[in-house]
Design a protein that fits this description.
Elements: E1 9-11, E2 14-16, E3 23-25, E4 32-34, H1 54-74, E5 78-82, E6 86-89, H2 91-100, H3 104-133, H4 140-153, H5 159-170, E7 172-173, E8 177-181, H6 183-201, H7 209-215
Antiparallel strand pairs: 1-2, 3-4, 5-6, 5-8, 7-8
Length: about 220
């Protein structure tokens, strides 16, 4: 969900935040209400100028996601068995094998979805959470754009898990050959869920509080 401080309005060329205008927005349906309204009459959610303990939830879920992401890269993602051999492949190892066999494009997609995007999300979420409390190099608008990017790419983080699931369902030839998900598939999926929840827990309105501080 994308919320800019509701809703910044302009008066005589000056930026006025929602709190300064005496307004509060519902984070679920985005309806704006007068400050002091307890519940949103549209969807019934409790209204808060800023989500309580937003940063605590962000960091707790961020750490949990990181803890599951480490074994996701150490343990095998795919277990392949044929009449002659049994092979286990990690995320990076499987991408390297695909590249060596000529499927460079698929290898790049898997590396991007399983390594570059998750690591980038961890870094971006940590940066946004830290920049809320201290002024950084990026403007609030730029940081909010980064937040939107993190929210958008989150839906592509499960590509590797989907590939494993599809292969597992298609290649089951009794004793001749079989492909099964490895333990890393579970830890990777859990890590993705935690990082998505971590990004969603960040109250994006906190990004715009710097405007009020600058006025002071």
């Amino acid at each position: 969900m994308q919320l800019v401080d509701m809703e910044l309005t302009r008066s005589a060329g000056n930026v006025i935040t929602a709190r300064e205008a005496g307004l509060v927005a519902c984070r679920r349906c985005t309806r704006v209400w007068p400050m002091g309204t307890a519940k949103c009459a549209r969807c019934g959610s409790k209204l808060h100028p800023r989500a309580p303990k937003s940063l605590q939830r962000v960091w707790a879920l961020w750490v949990a996601g990181l803890m599951f992401y480490i074994p996701a890269n150490l343990y095998p993602m795919l277990q392949t068995r044929t009449l002659f051999e049994a092979k286990e492949s990690t995320i990076v190892g499987g991408a390297i094998e695909l590249a060596q066999s000529g499927a460079i494009g698929i290898a790049i997609v898997i590396l991007a979805a399983s390594v570059l995007i998750p690591v980038g999300k961890f870094m971006a979420i940590a940066f946004l959470a830290l920049s809320v409390r201290r002024r950084g190099l990026l403007t609030p608008g730029q940081r909010h754009a980064l937040y939107e990017i993190v929210e958008y790419v989150g839906r592509w983080s499960m590509v590797d898990v989907f590939v494993v699931a599809i292969l597992s369902s298609l290649v089951q030839l009794s004793v001749v050959a079989s492909i099964n998900p490895g333990p890393a598939s579970l830890t990777f999926a859990i890590s993705v869920v935690f990082t998505m929840l971590s990004a969603q827990s960040l109250d994006s309105r906190l990004i715009w509080d710097e405007i009020e501080h600058l006025k002071d």
